[in-house]
Write a structure and sequence with these properties.
single chain, mainly beta, 6 helices, TonB-dep_rcpt-like, Beta-barrel_TonB_sf
Length: about 725
């Protein structure tokens, strides 16, 4: 896509550098996204976007330096789609399971990021978000990822604060007009030494110039990884299989796509959680229509997904026998549609209008445990028939006043209505009867109080975006804007009702093993963000670029927590509560082609630095899960079909932590990664080393090492999670 705004703020600086930092080459970035605004016809330019991952055929402009780096091989190096964003300015990742990291943009993460998979949001189907949206698609199925952060156009989505991450699977492949039936396929394999991780993937398609049928399947598994000090980090294993079939039809500027698939996770360990994923099955159907008309374009989508999820204990946390342990089940159905129209009113003016509807139905229940006094004889209903519906409508006007000045104004309304049914605890009585020896049963009193009040809530939310871009010369540009964005609570934030030690500690996606309790009276969060971007570059946008983006966000009714009690071993019990908060920071990125020779090859340097601070204005405490000062520098080389890179990842000490949740501090560290690959014809081979010097380190947002803490007898204070030590990686892709 051609870019008109850097509404993505710091992330758009990744156009020349971030792809390399994320383990991709600059050739994986669409060349059009870095064309100067003044050289493009105003009538055909589009919204701000950065394409972090695109087709490997989307090369940089001639003479830009490095070329393709094997997109398929890069996607095979991780089982976690969120990890593909690592190293982009402003992006950080909450630690979670091996395929389930939660992304944050400019300090705001989890549900505050609007994550779309093939145009549709995926609601949490677990009280610990063990199956977040980006885990719903395998990396080998990803064809494009677009990231918008900070000042985000209203057409990019609502019900979020920090921006939008859109992941698209590969579109149908068609033969050229008049070409005979076209068939193609690809086989890929990958191995990671640390944890003995293995990935295999297969793709195949058959098509003529009108119809297309394709298949994509993958399987990934790994054991527990080892840290740099040689210690095995428990509950980091996983196993996931993904299968999808895509049908496409096109004619005269109109295209229809129908996709269906099944994903299964037999298990996934969670080192920071009290529970593990012991079964997860998700089936989905998506439909999309794209049409071109005299007046503009129309994009309509419909989606349906059902997820059945089970938590229990894997062996690292004690294991479970058939029918035993502590089974906890969730069944979620997501359904909805979106319609977007782009009208070219004139050479200067473009109007975008759209409407969408999103529905989520959630049941979350915990079967009784035989032989347990505390967890029997009834089924515990954490959420019973919870529903969350949202209708969103937007209008957006883009105007190119001159080659130097462009503006974007948009307004959006989202109405969110939620409700849930009556709940019940494991028992309405104290476990040992009503006598003097009776044990306390706070959940019974909580359930009665919850059932006695009304649960229905309706929020009417308004978003506004105003952007301006000024290009005084062909070597500089200034962008500035304001955005008001609103997010309503999710079903767990409002309706998780139990305050007991066990019931509260089963809810919480923060990786801290604390207990969390919902609050039906939560108000929607409202974020007011101002941001500016200064961009300096060579006249051709091919040699070098530097970008600096400072930003400031004031959040009204920020959903933080208040402490309502203590759990054993120093953990705390927390209730979600509204506060006011601020976040401010800056992202700096730079990239340059430093040398190119026909015989020696092309050399490129790139780097990104991120800094963000956050504070709860009511308590004065630091905000939770805020990344400390960090940087990532990359040196790349390419000669013919050979491409290599050296990466240095450095992170400062995390000293600003939230005392309320006992967030641990983490020391500073630096890691070195190497990668190389060679491609000839239809075969590509990749190899590399991650954490070359086998450093022992603690990811600042990794959470706590609860699984290791529990295995050690739950003695002392739980510490931060250990990161993975050195790993040798190798992979091969064959096309046919």
């Amino acid at each position: 896509m051609t870019s008109r705004f850097a509404a993505a703020g710091a992330l758009r600086a990744a156009l020349l550098s971030g792809a390399a930092l994320a383990g991709l080459s600059p050739a994986a970035v669409s060349a059009q996204t870095i064309q100067p605004l003044s050289t493009q016809p105003l009538a055909v330019q589009s919204l701000p976007t950065i394409s972090v991952i695109a087709s490997p055929d989307d090369a940089l402009p001639a003479g830009a330096g490095l070329g393709g780096d094997g997109l398929a091989a890069r996607l095979l190096t991780t089982s976690d789609v969120a990890a593909l964003l690592r190293g982009l300015p402003g992006v950080s990742l909450y630690g979670n399971g091996g395929v389930s990291s939660l992304p944050a943009l400019n300090g705001l993460g989890a549900d505050r990021v609007n994550v779309l998979v093939d145009g549709a949001p995926v609601a949490p189907a677990c009280p610990n978000q063990m199956n977040p949206a980006l885990s719903a698609i395998a990396p080998t199925r990803v064809a494009k990822v677009e990231v918008l952060a900070g000042i985000t156009p209203v057409s990019a989505g609502g019900d979020s604060l920090s921006g939008t991450i859109s992941v698209e699977s590969a579109p149908p492949v068609f033969a050229a007009p008049g070409e005979a039936v076209r068939t193609e396929g690809k086989l890929s394999g990958f191995y990671r030494s640390n944890g003995r991780g293995v990935t295999g993937a297969a793709e195949a398609s058959v098509a003529d110039d009108t119809f297309s049928l394709g298949y994509n399947g993958s399987w990934s598994r790994a054991d527990n990884y080892k840290a740099g000090n040689g210690q095995t980090v428990r509950s980091t294993l996983y196993n996931v299989q993904d299968n999808a079939v895509t049908f496409g039809a096109r004619r005269d500027g109109h295209q229809f796509t129908l996709q269906g698939g099944l994903q299964t996770m037999p298990y996934q360990g969670f080192p920071t959680q009290r529970m593990d994923l012991t079964d997860n099955r998700s089936v989905f159907v998506n439909g999309r229509y794209e049409g071109s008309f005299d007046w503009g374009t129309l994009d309509a989508r419909a989606n349906w997904r059902r997820t059945r999820h089970t938590m229990n204990f894997l062996d690292d946390k004690g294991g479970y026998a058939a029918g035993g342990g502590m089974p906890m089940d969730t069944l979620t159905t997501d359904a909805g549609y979106s319609v977007k129209a782009t009208l070219q009113l004139s050479a200067r003016d473009t109007l975008r209008v759209g409407n969408e509807f999103r529905h989520t139905h959630l049941d979350d229940w915990w079967d009784p445990v035989a032989g347990s006094m505390m967890m029997s004889p009834l089924t515990y209903w954490n959420v019973n028939g919870g529903t969350r519906n949202r209708v969103g409508t937007f209008a957006e006007w883009e105007a190119g006043w001159s080659p130097a000045w462009t503006t974007l104004l948009g307004v959006r309304n989202d109405v969110v209505w939620m409700d849930t049914g009556a709940v019940q605890p494991y028992s309405w009585q104290n476990p040992l009867g009503m006598g003097m020896m009776a044990m306390a049963n706070p959940d019974a009193a909580d359930a009665r109080a919850f059932n006695a009040r009304g649960h229905a809530r309706t929020d009417v939310n308004v978003d506004v975006t105003a952007l301006v871009r000024y290009t005084p010369s062909d070597t500089s540009a200034v962008e500035a804007g304001y955005a008001r964005k609103t997010r309503s609570p999710n079903l767990y934030e409002r309706y998780a009702w139990g305050t007991g030690a066990m019931s509260s500690s089963m809810n919480g996606w923060f990786g801290d093993a604390n207990g969390y309790v919902g609050n039906p009276d939560l108000k929607p969060e409202v974020a007011n963000t101002v941001s500016a971007t200064l961009s300096l570059h060579d006249a051709t946008h091919k040699g070098w670029e530097v970008k600096l983006t400072p930003y400031y966000t004031y959040v009204q009714n920020f959903i933080d927590v208040e402490r309502i009690g203590a759990l054993s071993n120093g953990f705390v019990k927390l209730r979600f509560a509204n506060h006011d908060a601020i976040l401010f920071g800056a992202n700096l990125s730079a990239a340059a082609n430093v040398y190119q020779d026909e015989h020696v090859g092309a050399f490129r340097l790139s780097g990104v630095v991120g800094w963000v601070q956050g504070r709860n204005l009511d308590t004065g405490d630091a905000l939770y899960h805020i990344m400390p000062l960090n940087a990532l520098l990359t040196a790349e080389h390419r000669l013919g079909g050979w491409s290599s890179a050296v990466e240095l990842q450095a992170t400062a000490r995390k000293e600003r932590v939230q005392a309320l949740r006992n967030e641990p501090e983490t020391p500073s560290y630096a890691l070195v990664n190497l990668r190389t690959g060679y491609e000839w014809g239809d075969v590509r081979i990749d190899a590399g080393v991650e954490n070359l010097f086998d450093r022992t380190y603690y990811p600042p947002l990794g959470g706590v090492g609860y699984a290791d803490y529990r295995a050690g007898g739950s003695q002392g204070t739980v510490g931060p999670l250990l990161g993975a030590g050195r790993s040798f990686v190798a992979g091969m892709t064959v096309k046919f």
